[in-house]
Amino acid sequence: QVQLRESGGGLVQAGGSLRLSCTASTRPSRNYIMAWFRQAPGKDREFVSTIKWRGDTTYYADSVRGRCTISRDDDKNTLYLQMNSLKPEDSAVYYCAADLVWGDSDVVRQERHYDYWGQGTQVTVSS
Question: What one-character-per-residue DSSP string does 101-119 give?
Fold first, then answer.
């Protein structure tokens, strides 16, 4: 069982940046693949990005590719999402997720693939 806690959300103007963090309670976190999802009001939760063990493979949603970078520091049991050039449509609750199993690109983009979830952190981008 792993517990995840997100931090780093907040209010930022369009064009600004934020770095989200997700700390895992279990060691070693390197056993888990980790991901970011987000959910805007009235919408389904959607995939943002995922990272494999050791960070050697990453995937991004088209909507954030080129603006966001996912990374992990397993010595600190922490996952990051650096978000730049933020847009109002990026406003959402951002969730960290983890699982022990990797899969192909379509699989690891699915919410149902992940067994462990954090409580979320709110990101609001003003225009």
Answer: ----HHHHT-GGG--EE--
